[in-house]
């Protein structure tokens, strides 16, 4: 599995970009290839997700880790493949997406390409409360943890990976705001609180 690639952006097409690293040109499927236009022939870092099918090994690229996280959440839903997830991300309205999922706005979700009513309902069922991020003014998704407490952010992410919902972790975040502990101690204390 890959996390990211660093290399020179050597080609932009309507469906993908090519990043040259170590003498190889990697085809990266991205939501909007032309959003990389100002970086043509420059060294860039792209976050990756590898998708393996019977007939192909594909790489999907993302501007940042938040965009990748949204993509991974989307493809976890039955009925949403990587191409559809990229189409949803390309709309660049993560704020609207998260709000629609958390508020069961089926009408909004069916506006995305290849998303019917049944798939929209499945999105709500599978993803409601799972986005730990909240929208910023520019429409991109950002972590709710303040930038100054990386240990708390890591602990929250670990708790999410354990299966706790973002809505459950809001009280944990509020409780620990302004404190200074290691991620391990935050996790242990949070688990005690969640088990009560």
UniProtKB/TrEMBL annotation:
Coiled coil: none annotated. InterPro entries: DNA_helicase_Holl-junc_RuvA_I, Hlx-hairpin-Hlx_DNA-bd_motif, NA-bd_OB-fold, RuvA, RuvA_2-like, RuvA_C, RuvA_C_sf. The keyword Manganese does not apply. Residues 72-91, 107-126 form the Helix-hairpin-helix DNA-binding motif class domain. One of its GO terms (molecular function) is hydrolase activity. The RuvA-RuvB-RuvC complex processes Holliday junction (HJ) DNA during genetic recombination and DNA repair, while the RuvA-RuvB complex plays an important role in the rescue of blocked DNA replication forks via replication fork reversal (RFR). RuvA specifically binds to HJ cruciform DNA, conferring on it an open structure. The RuvB hexamer acts as an ATP-dependent pump, pulling dsDNA into and through the RuvAB complex. HJ branch migration allows RuvC to scan DNA until it finds its consensus sequence, where it cleaves and resolves the cruciform DNA. Has three domains with a flexible linker between the domains II and III and assumes an 'L' shape. Domain III is highly mobile and contacts RuvB. This is Holliday junction branch migration complex subunit RuvA.
